[in-house]
Amino acid sequence: MRQYSADLTPPWKKPQPVPEVPADPGLVVEEPGTGFCGAVIRCEAGTVTLEDRFGKHRVFPLEPRGFLLEGRVVTLVRPSSSTGPVRPSRTASGSVAVPGARARVARAGRIYVEGRHDAELVEKVWGDDLRIEGVVVEYLGGVDDLPSIVADFAPGPDARLGVLVDHLVPGSKEWRIAEAVTSEHALVVGHPYIDIWEAVKPSSVGIDAWPRVPHGQDWKTGVCRALGWPPENTGAVWQAILARVGSYKDLEPELLGRVEELIDFVTV
Questions:
Q1: pTM value?
Q2: In 154-244, where does DSSP find H-type helix?
């Protein structure tokens, strides 16, 4: 007697097999039910722990077809030789590094900073993050040019503009200009330092504190004189300072928070 299969589901309606991928440390996946995206830091019997770019941890069951890898459904499986928790590598900003990630096509939105040194510091610490997000950083050359730049840029829902300003304290000239150009699609934030040099922790540069420079004197020149650095070549001094910056840990929190705020704003 001929035997018939009890499964009468048409072949085109049956779930298609998906690849099994070892949950190796550092693998970046998304859990579609929650939208949580992060790197694998631990894989134990039946569960996997992910860490997102902000350091938040979530534990998920290792279920069939339970994750997305580069937009494709996959089944995560425990690696054949699991060695326990391993922290994934990180970018200089502290975000989880994504090995092999390609730079995104540049967004219409932009981040402007006040000068060349500001741009170089932001690039060194946040450069990897900015390329993945497709954010371009440009420098103003001076806050006095900000109103005309904002007007020419014409920020909108699909082209947000973020601006980082030095020495943004209430009542200052910079503060008044920032207030005048801020809108729903243009965000101006600032740090309290006279110059971006001060946003580098003194301990990272090998000094006890940044010197106080009398009002009316050029700040960079005054700092160099006070510390015995060559005041006639502040560009070379800045490159020496920048070389001491290895990651976000070398910067003051007042700068870190403002840059992260701008990145979030222009990538919404």
A1: 0.63
A2: 173-181, 202-205, 219-227, 234-243
